[in-house]
Amino acid sequence: MAEQASILHADLDAFYASVEQRDDPRLRGRPVIVGGGVVLAASYEAKACGVKTAMGGRLAKALCPQAIVVPPRMSAYSAASKAVFEVFRDTTPLVEGISIDEAFLDVGGLRKVSGEPADIAVRLRAAVKDRVGLAITVGVARTKFLAKVASGVAKPDGLLVVPPETELEFLHQLPVERLWGVGTVTSAKLHERRIRTVGQVARLGEAYLVSILGQGAGRHLHALAHNRDPRPVVVGRRRRSMGAQRAIGRGPHALPDLEATLAGLVDRVSRRMRAADRVGRTITLRLRFDDYSRATRSRTLRQPSSHTTVLLDAAQGLLAASLPLIVERGVTLIGVAVGNLDGQGEQLMLPLERPDDGGLDSALDAVRERFGSSAVTRATLLHRGEGFTVPLLPDD
């Protein structure tokens, strides 16, 4: 583990909403909500009114009546992400992207050529602003965990460096919710025992934390409370999954509409897989409901595949099995992901078992590559709108 604070966590501020404000001067300084049925993103002006990501659009407008609601433009967000990641890679070759709008950067080996990490962070923020037109917050610390915490504390549009000699002093004063893995359930368990700060967690024995949270969570939080995080910045790690999701608003939603949405998502994911020369074995269906609770269902194929028909058959089976839950709780978001990705060529199946859609997939990919992703679409998606999908990571 590096002894100096040389890991940067760079995180774009209110990313989708910021892109909208950048591209439309009329939106600047005004509350902006991206997504109507469900809030995909909110500007800081909207957040000041209590609007949060994943909140229902009706509630968001009630909290912030003056907000301007805009439809998502995923192509614009993808382009902005790629431009920001170019700035990251111009800063250091050691870049680990963790989402479409954030990354870890290791600048420990650049002191002789680029200066101190804090100075590099200042220039990084200026470069993103000048070249991409977006504000970005950067946290600098000795570990990935603490760098991410620092960026969260510094938001919005800030820079925070945590020197090694003050890291525990900084960390221990923060609420327990700043620890990775502390969600609503874990937070409630800790609060029941009057444990509210990271410092209080650090003073507890590991065995006690394990007794109230379980072995995995207890050991995990005990280590983080002492800033023990040996993970290095990993470059070039291939995605373990590819996926997309679509917010569909509050229902009721007819089954054909849900099936059409799912088909559109599978189309996009399978196309990205083929473009990356990847095949996958595990298909996961993700659902979010009216009460913001979530559920996942998955199925593992006998052979890895990137064929649209194979993946769609599996996803439709998962959707059919989930219908009782959907009817009972009301679905507001559907997502699909393909995991256990492999870069190897697809293993051939018996002739009678393998769908003959490889030529069709290739033909459709070629048309979309030449004329755009909307040049060919499924008949079931006509007049339903393109909707929006959210990639798990920016495409390189």
From TrEMBL:
It comes from Cryptosporangium phraense. The gene is dinB. It is found in: Cytoplasm. The record marks Y16 as: Substrate discrimination. Keywords: Cytoplasm, DNA damage, DNA repair, DNA replication, DNA-binding, DNA-directed DNA polymerase, Magnesium, Metal-binding, Mutator protein, Nucleotidyltransferase, Transferase. It catalyses: DNA(n) + a 2'-deoxyribonucleoside 5'-triphosphate = DNA(n+1) + diphosphate. One of its GO terms (cellular component) is cytosol. Binds 2 magnesium ions per subunit. Belongs to the DNA polymerase type-Y family. Monomer. Residues 7-183 form the UmuC domain. Its main location: cytoplasm. Poorly processive, error-prone DNA polymerase involved in untargeted mutagenesis. Copies undamaged DNA at stalled replication forks, which arise in vivo from mismatched or misaligned primer ends. These misaligned primers can be extended by PolIV. Exhibits no 3'-5' exonuclease (proofreading) activity. May be involved in translesional synthesis, in conjunction with the beta clamp from PolIII. One of its GO terms (biological process) is DNA-templated DNA replication. This is DNA polymerase IV. It comes from the Bacteria. Its EC number is 2.7.7.7. Its cofactor is Mg(2+). Mg(2+) binds at D11, D101.
